[in-house]
């Protein structure tokens, strides 16, 4: 059974930091891409950052580039999203999602809007001004 479980959300002040974790199980970790999405009330879901475990490629939305860092611990089957210099507009429910990635996959063209097969339940991040 494929399972993704997010943790690490909470309340942070503007300018503060949080680290989200996504624990994955049920599939070969090194064959998949893991992407963090977020959705704020009344807004469309946004791809924030993605990591292709196949080759280590990372991708960031312009809105978080330079502030957020995605990384993985393959031994623990976990992916992290380190969020620094948080802004109130970062407030959203954050989801991690996974999809198997093969060489030449269309994932590499648009990793942050690629349709992912597996999703976690989400974790709330609230940034106070």
Beginning-to-end CA distance, first to last residue: 40 Å
Low-confidence parts: none
Can you give the mean pLDDT? 96
Give Rg in angstroms: 14 Å
Strand content: over 45%
Order of helices and strands: EEEEEEEEEEE
Q: What is the 3D shape?
A: globular
Question: Can you walk me through this structure?
Answer:
The chain is built from no helices and 11 strands. With 129 residues, it is an all-beta fold. The strands form 2 sheets. Strands 2, 4, 5, 6, 9, 10 and 11 form a 7-stranded mixed sheet that branches. A 4-stranded antiparallel sheet has the order 1-3-8-7, with no helix packed on it. It starts with a strand and ends with a strand.
Write a brief caption for the model.
The protein contains no helices and eleven strands. By secondary structure, the chain is mainly β. The strands form two sheets. Strands 2, 4, 5, 6, 9, 10 and 11 form a seven-stranded mixed β-sheet that branches.
Key terms for this structure?
single chain; 129 residues; seven-stranded mixed β-sheet; 50% strand
Topology:
Layout: E1 3-7, E2 10-13, E3 18-25, E4 32-39, E5 46-52, E6 57-60, E7 68-73, E8 78-83, E9 92-100, E10 118-119, E11 123-128
Parallel strand pairs: 2-11
Antiparallel strand pairs: 1-3, 3-8, 4-5, 4-9, 5-6, 7-8, 9-10, 9-11
């Amino acid at each position: 059974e494929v399972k993704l479980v997010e943790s690490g959300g909470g309340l942070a002040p503007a300018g503060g930091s949080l680290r989200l974790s996504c624990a994955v199980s049920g599939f070969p970790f090194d064959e998949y891409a893991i992407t963090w999405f977020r959705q704020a009330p009344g807004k469309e879901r946004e791809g924030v950052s993605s990591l292709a475990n196949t080759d280590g490629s990372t991708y960031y939305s312009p809105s978080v580039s330079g502030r957020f860092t995605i990384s993985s611990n393959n031994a623990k089957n976990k992916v992290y999203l380190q969020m620094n210099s948080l802004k109130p507009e970062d407030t959203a429910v954050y989801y991690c999602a996974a999809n198997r990635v093969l060489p030449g996959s269309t994932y590499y063209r648009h990793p942050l809007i690629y349709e992912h097969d597996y999703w976690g339940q989400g974790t709330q991040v609230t940034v106070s001004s």
